[in-house]
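Researcher: Here's the sequence for the chain we discussed earlier.
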Amino acid sequence: MEARLPRFLNKEITIIKDLPRGHFEGLLGDKKVFIKKLRASSETELAWLEKINSLGLGVELYGTLKIQDQTYAVMEFFEGVNTQIPMMAPSGFILTKKALGEIQRQAAVLAENQIIPVDLQFQISLDGQSVKIVDPELFKQASSVAEARAQTLNIFMGLKLPWMMEGKLEL
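Model: Thanks. This is the structure I predict for it:
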C-alpha cells in the first residue's frame, strides 16, 4: 500500500516529552499528540493508518513534520494498555468483555474490507472503555473477504490467548 504523506503547513507543535526510540509526546494546539520517528517501512504504516482512519478505526493520523532531516508522523496520543504484551499491563488491569467485544468488532470491520491485520495491536484506555488500533505497519490486503475473515479469526485468537494465560481476561 502506498502512502501519500500528509504534511503540516504552518502548524506549531510543542514537544513536551522525549519518549524511547526517538519518539516524542507533544501538543498540536490543545491536542496531545504522539510524534513517531519514521523508518523506511513507515510509509506502509501511514498508508494503512489512513485507510483504517477512513473506516473510522485506529488512532487519528494528523500528518507529518520534519525535525532537522528526520520525518515524523504526528498522530493522536491515546494513553492506555497495548494488547501485545499482557504482562506489561498495570497490576489489576483486566481485558474486559466489553473491550474484547470492541476488539472483535473492529477486527470484523477490517475483514469485511479485505484487510488482514498481521500483528494486530490495540491500545485500551486505562478505564477499559475505549479501544483503538495502533501500529498497523504489517497489515496486508486479502484477496477476498473469506480469506480476511479466516486470517483475522486466527490473529484474534492469538491476541486473546496470552491475556487468558496471564489471568487478565474477564470470563
